[in-house]
Structure formats: structure tokens, C-alpha cells
Write a structure and sequence with these properties.
Largest sheet: 11 strands, mixed
Radius of gyration: 18 Å
Shape: globular
Helix content: under 10%
Order of helices and strands: EEEEEHEEEEEEEHEEEHEEE
Distance between the termini: 44 Å
């Protein structure tokens, strides 16, 4: 069981990068407000300690270093109203796809939009509860599933609907796996703090306007069911992530469509965890890197 409550990875004012246990003011739960953290030493998924060394936080980074991330699993159509707005039937089983680890980014990083993703409109937002697995799990019963949770974060499953559907060849990952298209954080709140992940308000704001607003209670496959199902014949490892799907309100489901544009500011928020805020940045064509 982790010794910390709210894991952050951060660039300190001394120029070094640390894992830490966020220190928040009384009554504040948004980890994005972290100014100081107790340094953690050791293996966050194994033997570690929260030291008495306190460092000033200059910048919050993606909560897990890339070398500590294993597989990024994602669910589609996991909220009934989202399935309806997509014009698709409710799934009988969880709809699983994957995002590459290179799509992960930090809670304030820009969302880079490669020129190939600028060829047609369709850039969309998706707020999602992110589950991080803390210990090896296989064939886990639902009654024990939450025992394998390391903690929870909020993420934005940035998607390009044209590349996801029309150009995706029947697979979704191409339209969801561009570099930097999975910002998450602002930290990871342990299951000791969030004991029930099915009671959390979740939302998205685009340029200050609320465009998604729901509760994780509305998930079709809750966290227990999801972990149990995904562990059947498949081993989940410490550092695996499960992005648990988005509620209704995405740009694709609106009339007229609401696509993100260059310079837009998108915020995703999860109760008890905090806010991830990113700016959309359209990139210019560059020559091939050798």
C-alpha cells in the first residue's frame, strides 16, 4: 500500500525532478494547486518512503515517469448517454482500445496537433477517470478489484474523429494515439483517499464554457467490473492505466459539431483529484528527423 496520499511528479525550483506527496492547503483538493511536496524515495510501486524533505514545486509533470508506465488501456462508450450521442448501441462487453505511452503528457503541457491531424476538422475532447493499477492482477473477482488500484487521476482522451472513424481502418487508436494526446494528472490520488470511484463529479470546460458534466456513477461498466473483466486471462501490471471512458457532451455529438481549434484552452476536472489544463497548439510541417 502506498505511503503517500496524493502522488505528484514535479520539477522543483532546484532544477531536479522528484516524486512527491503533495502538500495542499486546508480544504483544498485540487492537486493542481500544489506548491510544495514531501520527497518520495524508492520504488513507488514497491518499497518507498515519504521523507521529511520538502521541495518547492515549479512545475507539475505527468504523474508517472514514462519508464514507470506499462500499458495504457482505454474504454469506449462507457456512459449510456455518450453511446446514444455517438449513435451506437450500449455495449454488451467493455469496448477496449489502446493508446501508446507516447501519447501521455502532463497536466499543463500543450496538446500538439500534427499537420496530418489538421487536414480535416474533428479534434475533440473527452474527460475521463483514469485508474492506475498498483499490483499484479489476473482473474480478479469484482469483490477484490479495488484492492489492486494504486490510485486515480483525471485525463483528456484527445481524439480526432476523422482519423478515428473515417480513416481509422476500423480501429480507433490511430485517431487517439498522437503524441501528447493523453494529458492527465494533476497527480494520482490513492484509493485510501478515494474509497469509492463511482461517486465523483467529472467535467470538461472549453475556453471556460462547460461542455461535459456528469458523474462516474453513470458508467456502464464501473471500475470494479472493468478491472475484473480486463484481468480475465490478461495480466494487469503495476503501472498499467485504465482510462474508463467519457460521458456525453463531446464535440462529435453536438449539432453543430464543436471541434477544438488552435489556441483553445481545455480543462478536465475530477472531484477529489483536481484540474488538468492544456492549450491546443497546431504544429507546422517540419522536415523528417534523421
Amino acid at each position: 500500500m502506498p505511503a503517500f496520499s496524493r502522488l505528484v511528479r514535479f520539477l522543483a525550483k532546484n532544477g531536479k525532478v522528484y516524486y512527491g506527496d503533495a502538500i495542499l492547503p486546508q480544504g483544498v483538493t485540487d492537486i493542481a494547486q500544489t506548491k510544495h511536496a514531501r520527497v518520495i524515495k524508492g520504488d513507488i510501486f514497491g518499497k518507498h518512503e515519504v521523507t521529511n524533505d520538502i521541495e518547492d514545486v515549479r512545475l507539475l509533470l505527468a504523474p508517472l515517469a514514462q519508464e514507470d508506465v506499462r500499458t495504457v488501456r482505454c474504454l469506449g462508450l462507457n456512459y449510456a448517454l455518450h453511446a446514444k450521442e455517438a449513435g451506437l448501441p450500449l455495449p454488451k462487453y467493455p469496448v477496449l482500445f489502446y493508446k501508446p505511452a507516447t501519447s501521455l503528457s502532463g497536466p499543463t503541457d500543450p496538446i500538439p496537433v500534427h499537420p496530418i491531424a489538421q487536414e480535416a476538422p474533428g479534434l475533440d475532447y473527452e474527460c475521463e477517470l483514469v485508474v492506475v493499477i498498483g499490483k499484479t492482477a489476473r482473474d480478479v473477482p469484482e469483490s477484490e478489484a479495488l484492492d489492486y488500484v494504486f490510485g486515480y487521476a483525471i485525463g483528456n482522451d484527445v481524439s480526432h474523429r476523422d482519423w478515428q472513424v473515417a480513416r481509422g481502418g476500423g480501429q480507433w487508436s490511430l485517431g487517439k494515439g498522437f503524441d501528447g494526446w493523453a494529458p492527465y494528472g494533476p497527480g494520482i490520488v490513492t484509493s485510501e483517499i478515494i474509497k469509492d470511484p463511482q461517486t465523483l463529479k467529472i467535467s470538461t470546460r472549453l475556453n471556460g464554457q462547460t461542455v461535459q458534466e456528469s458523474n462516474t456513477a453513470d458508467q456502464i461498466f464501473n471500475v470494479k467490473k472493468t478491472i475484473s473483466f480486463l484481468s480475465r486471462g490478461h495480466t494487469l501490471l503495476p503501472g498499467d492505466m485504465i482510462w474508463t471512458g467519457t460521458p456525453s457532451g463531446v464535440g462529435m455529438g453536438r449539432n453543430p459539431k464543436l471541434w477544438m481549434k488552435d489556441g483553445d484552452i481545455v480543462e478536465v476536472e475530477l472531484e477529489g483529484v483536481g484540474i488538468v489544463t492544456n492549450k491546443v497548439e497546431f504544429q507546422k510541417e517540419e522536415g523528417a528527423k534523421l
